[in-house]
Specification:
- This protein is globular.
- The strands form 2 sheets. The chain has a 5-stranded antiparallel β-sheet, with no helix packed on it. The chain has a 3-stranded antiparallel β-sheet with strand order 5-4-7, with no helix packed on it.
- By secondary structure, it is mainly β.
- The chain has one domain: Sandwich (Jelly Rolls), CATH 2.60.120.10.
- The protein has strands at 16-22, 26-33, 49-56, 58-63, 68-72, 76-79, 85-90, 96-103.
Length: 104
């Protein structure tokens, strides 16, 4: 047994990505951010579908069609494969804990 909140970092110089489950069919990842964003020059353009939920904190996603989506505690979104997106804001004052499920 484990808890998704176990081992949260006290200091966070870089975003933290930890695979909680990884099989050929699915990957479940915990992401921890604190004021982090996607690189300015890059978009996520994944070959997998992504379902992502904010467990703590908040974050803002930008899609390449111009849509912005602000996610707070408990909010989730499904992002189909190859829908280009990026994180443009996470709370700089507290940890943002994301749970992301990637699947084909």
């Amino acid at each position: 047994m484990a808890n998704v909140f176990d081992g949260l970092p006290e200091e966070l110089a870089a975003e933290q990505f930890i695979d909680l489950v990884k099989t050929d069919a699915v990957r479940i990842e915990r992401i921890v951010s604190k004021g982090h964003c996607s690189p300015e020059q890059g978009w996520y353009d994944q070959h997998e579908h992504e379902w992502v939920m904010v467990l703590e904190g908040s974050g803002t996603l930008l899609f390449d069609d111009g849509r912005e989506l602000v996610l707070g505690k408990g909010d989730y979104v499904h992002i189909p494969a190859h829908v280009r997106h990026r994180v443009i804001h996470t709370d700089p004052d507290q940890l943002t804990v994301w749970l992301a499920v990637f699947y084909s």
